[in-house]
Amino acid sequence: MLGRCAARALGALRGLREGAPPARSPGPSRRLLSSEKVSDENHSLPKPCWSKDMRLLFDQFMKKCEDGSWIHLPSYEYIATQRSQDFPTFIHASELINKEKLSQGRLFTKSFEDGLGFEYVMFYNDAEKRIVCVFQGGPHLQGMPGFFHGGAIATMIDATVGMNAIVSGGIVMTANLNIDFKRPIPLCSIVLINSQLDKIEGRKLFVSCNVQSVDKKILYTEATSLFVKLDLEKKFD
Amino acid sequence: MLGRCAARALGALRGLREGAPPARSPGPSRRLLSSEKVSDENHSLPKPCWSKDMRLLFDQFMKKCEDGSWIHLPSYEYIATQRSQDFPTFIHASELINKEKLSQGRLFTKSFEDGLGFEYVMFYNDAEKRIVCVFQGGPHLQGMPGFFHGGAIATMIDATVGMNAIVSGGIVMTANLNIDFKRPIPLCSIVLINSQLDKIEGRKLFVSCNVQSVDKKILYTEATSLFVKLDLEKKFD
Predict the structure, then answer these.
(1) Which DSSP symbol is given to B90?
(2) Which residues numbered 93-122 in A keep a CB inside 8 Å of some CB on B?
(3) CA B39 to chain centre
(4) Best of A52, A120, A142 to disrupt the B interface by mutation (most B CBs within 10 Å)?
(5) Among the partner residues A93, A148, A156, nearest to B1 by beta-carbon distance
(6) What is the side-by-side strand order in the sheet with A76-80?
(7) Per-residue model confidence (pLDDT) at position B13
(8) Does B107 contact A156 at a Cβ distance shorter than 8 Å?
(9) Which of A199, A232, B34, B220 is the residue whose CA sits 20 to 30 A from B147?
(10) How large is the angle between the packed helices A150-169 and A4-17, nearest 10 degrees?
(11) ipTM for the assembly
């Protein structure tokens, strides 16, 4: 269940393929959006709260982008203030929601102050159909004292494999997420989430991933997932 | 991967069994805790941000608690400021974490302002080894516009099945979480998370759950999980 943010990244990616401005620009993605307030801040660019290691990994991947084999995916925050023109069939369900509360809608992964929650940047390799997400989790993602909450890890996995499904299949929804937590991840770690599109069968997309330490010596988590392309005629009410 | 909060609930539950003050009191749980700052606010008691429906469900379950068949589980926030004496074997891994950041540690499910994130209350039936969690998700848990993020749902599932494992087996860690997302859940909905301990095999605890609408007419999500009792001699470093 991914947000407009991902759809925007898909738009940006399409823009790149069409020779539009590079992913750092919010320009091409705007085509997908018409009905919400949007923050222009691209959260996948370095911020003061990023650690030295996070910045170093960002620079390394940006270097890989120079020959076009990797693409830096942008990441914007949205504030949903009204019905989405992109998801017209969801209108009925949305009408069940308290309008005032809906106006406060914030993307889950962007609803923390800088550095306290989810800081991440994703890079996509189109030839290999895979994404690497560099994730720096903040102190407000704690579960067992000193470690990330399993739900926070599940959230970043969902965001990463979901993005991989979106850039491969368009607008999708998470149908299954199967996560093996092998080792707890120390709070405030930086980890790599390596996602891979395994196969597409009709409307189904199968994506797997793992979560590793930056030096790749520790395998923290493995996961498989199933995404289904949305049938825009179907109502979820 | 559950936090001190759950361990505290277990302590409170044990206190009840030993004839200690009722679960509303933070007293009995204190036995488990020695090394962190604790907020005394019990988040599982009604708050102004709870909707009328949430309050109604709370009252209905509190009535079920009167004959002792159900127990209202308390829920506290913790702020981890130093090493945990309850998890001594995690010390080495914790030392890898930036001390300043660790001091900002907040339980993931309690790191939102009232009403914007996770509002929930859990009730435990000891005879049936099951928990019902009444969950009111706030607008900052959004994924696809107008709906909860899959990661937010995974987080509440992890918290609920994890609590079920803890009250049945002591200190545990999530080993596997397998979630089928059947229908998207409208943002700001109140839902019931019904968790059930299925079996215990040695150190393994198997817990399943589903997420339903309050009227039980809509099945949103189903999940299975595996928890492993912690070997306190094992290091995660």
Answers:
(1) G
(2) 93-94, 96-98, 101-109, 111-112, 116-117
(3) 16
(4) A142
(5) A148
(6) A37-42, A76-80, A105-106
(7) 55
(8) no
(9) A199
(10) 40
(11) 0.82
Which residues in chain A are closer than 8 Å to B98, comparing Cβ atoms? Answer: 188
Q: What residues of B are in contact with residue A108 (Cβ under 8 Å)?
A: 140-143, 148-149, 151-152
The sign of the dihedral angle between the CA atoms of B149, B153, B156, B159 is: negative
Question: Is B28 domain-assigned?
Answer: yes
Across A183-201, average pLDDT: 97
Closest-CA residue to B5 (of A171, A57, A83, A151): A151
Contact (CB, 8 A) for B174 and B227: yes
Q: Which residue of A lies nearest to B112 if distances are taken between CA atoms?
A: A112
Q: Which among B45, B44, B11, B41 has a CA at the least distance from the CA of B28?
A: B11
Q: Which of A230-234, B134-138, B211-215 has the lowest mean pLDDT?
A: A230-234
Asked whether residue B235 is assigned to any structural domain, the reply reads no
Cross-chain residue pair B1–A187, CB shorter than 8 Å: no
Q: Residue A224: give the domain boundaries.
A: 4-229
Token pair belonging to A78: 């949205």
| pLDDT tens digits along B82-130 | 334 444 444 445 455 566 667 889 999 999 999 999 999 999 999 999 9
Give me the pLDDT at residue B17, please.
40
Residue A232 pLDDT: 66
Measured between CB atoms, which of B4, B156, B157 is closest to A145?
B4
Token pair, residue B225, equals: 């999980």
Catalytic positions of B, written as ranges: 158
Average pLDDT over residues A213-228: 97
In-domain check, residue B191 = yes
Instruction: State the Cα–Cα distance between residues A165 and A160, nearest whole angstrom.
Output: 9
Taking an 8 Å cut-off on Cβ atoms, the answer to whether B145 and A78 are in contact is: yes
Give the pTM: 0.82
Nearest residue on chain B to A155, alpha-carbon basis? B151
Give the phi and the psi of residue B132 in degrees, each rounded to 5.
-110, 125
Mean of the pLDDT values across residues A125-149? 96
Q: Residue A65: what pLDDT?
A: 97
Q: How many structural domains comprise chain A? A: 1
The CATH number of residue A12's host domain is 3.10.129.10
Q: What is the pLDDT of residues A55-101, one digit of tens each?
A: 999 999 999 999 999 999 988 765 443 334 444 444 445 455 566 66
Residue B42, in any domain of the structure: yes
